[in-house]
Amino acid sequence: MTTAPYIFAEINLGRWTLTPGFRFEPTLIDGSLRLPHTYQAPDIGYRRMGVALNPYFGPLAWMPNPRLSAAYRATRKLTFTAGGGVYGQPPAVEDLSPVFGNPNLASSSAIHASAGVSYKLTGTLVMEVVGFYKRLYDLVARSGLPSPPVGQSLGKAGSAAVMADRCCCGKSWPRVLCWLSYSISRSERKDRPDSNWRLFDYDQTNVLTLLASYEISHGFQAGARFRYTTGMPRTRWREPTSTQTSQQGEPIFGAQNSIRLPAFYALDLRVEKAFVYRRLKFNLFADVQNVSNRKNPEEIIYSADYSQRSYIAGLPVLPVVGLRMEF
What we know:
- It is a single chain.
- The chain is mostly beta strands.
- The protein contains no helices and 23 strands.
- The strands form five sheets. It has a 15-stranded antiparallel β-sheet that branches.
- A hairpin with a 3-residue loop joins strand 10 and strand 11 (176-190).
């Protein structure tokens, strides 16, 4: 359980707008030492208060994490933005296992920084380009020992870096709205200080989203969305050869995250009807997701001897009907 009060202020200085802030992130961690049961685990649980510490201030590590964003309106059409801050995240529940994890894990931390520019090409056409960088510290990583001690299978030795650029453009007419967004990024991490950098498990180089909607009349609206993303990294498994030693039924692993799943793409359609009854607003909608019925791969599966592989596919074409009510 996490409670994170955030204190900030907005300061207007002519063309400048500054928003400094501080976030204090105390975390109450509950755990059970009985599941899974071992002879080393007492028959009681534990509770401790953790804090997403700030490792960049030395003895002031308990200082709240600072944040700052700034915007400079150069002209009526041109605006520059920048921001940064320190962030923290408590360990995941599954990583606190007294047998398969480490109940003494503390929070991970990161530095975020971003800078961008937006320009209003016309009264209804806006283009924005943003670059951001994240450096993550004290990530949970598996122990490098072949047989780590019980309760010490995980440690806080990992680090990561994320670099990305995002460009988006929106255009609106009296009844039409269009939106295009494209991101290019690279996310890498290392599990120990002496290990090599590798791709993050969820790294996606290209992410493209295209939206369009049209107000028909009498509260009816129709829209479409197209999404494309690069497949996420995976580790290659292969069948052992006669010159390689392997226990029965175990594959030979290639370089970690050296291959990718095939790319994901999908086209979605939507029709919506809005109406008002007394003080209530209703939106009746019908969605058809993955209109092309593409079998987007979500995971790799192998044959029993690891000589062949195939994919687990996501949802096929999926129609959805719903009703949303607003007071």
